[in-house]
Amino acid sequence: MADLYVGLVHYPIYNKRMNVIAGAVTNFDIHDISRTCRTYNVQGYYIIHPLEVQKQIIDKILSYWQEGYGKVYNPDRADALSRVLWQPDIASAVQTIAERTGKQPYVVTTDARIYPNTVSYSFMRKQLQEGDRPVLLLFGTGFGIEAETMAKSDYILEPVYGPCDYNHLCVRSAAAIILDRLAGEPWWEKN
């Protein structure tokens, strides 16, 4: 299976007025998505934010759980957080993966909308299972990753749909559902 990486993009993203902004890092996103990433054997979880003050917040949270009392109190959390890295932008995350693996990763973004290069989960799962290039799966915070950045992606995954027309999952839920569809045990194929 190809190596899978996750990036949580805080810039460039949209706010509800569709202005491009930098969103704030949240403690929940660091903890919850890292645990999901660890469960699905994601090789690295990149928190992508250009501001140094946000990097300091990330470093403080990671330090507590990896070096301080938190590591003793909850070693499983320390294990999950060991795959979390800060990157100032998407290009840096791509470069880090290319240097680590020796191969240029596919950049795959997620969104609640359909685009010309939208692909199915089965297509992307096959790329992961049979491909030899790593995959960087990007999740946007706020109201999604900015359109110009989306257009540069190799692929965009189809939206996650429920049984109704409401489609606005929190990023932590979307990450769990999508990672299960791409890297989880295909229990639905066994029944």
Automatic annotation (TrEMBL):
Signal peptide: none annotated. InterPro entries: RNA_MeTrfase_C_dom (IPR019230), tRNA_m1G_MTases_N (IPR029026). Residues 4-184 form the tRNA (guanine-N(1)-)-methyltransferase C-terminal domain. This is tRNA (guanine-N(1)-)-methyltransferase C-terminal domain-containing protein. It comes from Phascolarctobacterium succinatutens YIT 12067. The lineage of its organism: Bacteria, Bacillati, Bacillota, Negativicutes, Acidaminococcales.
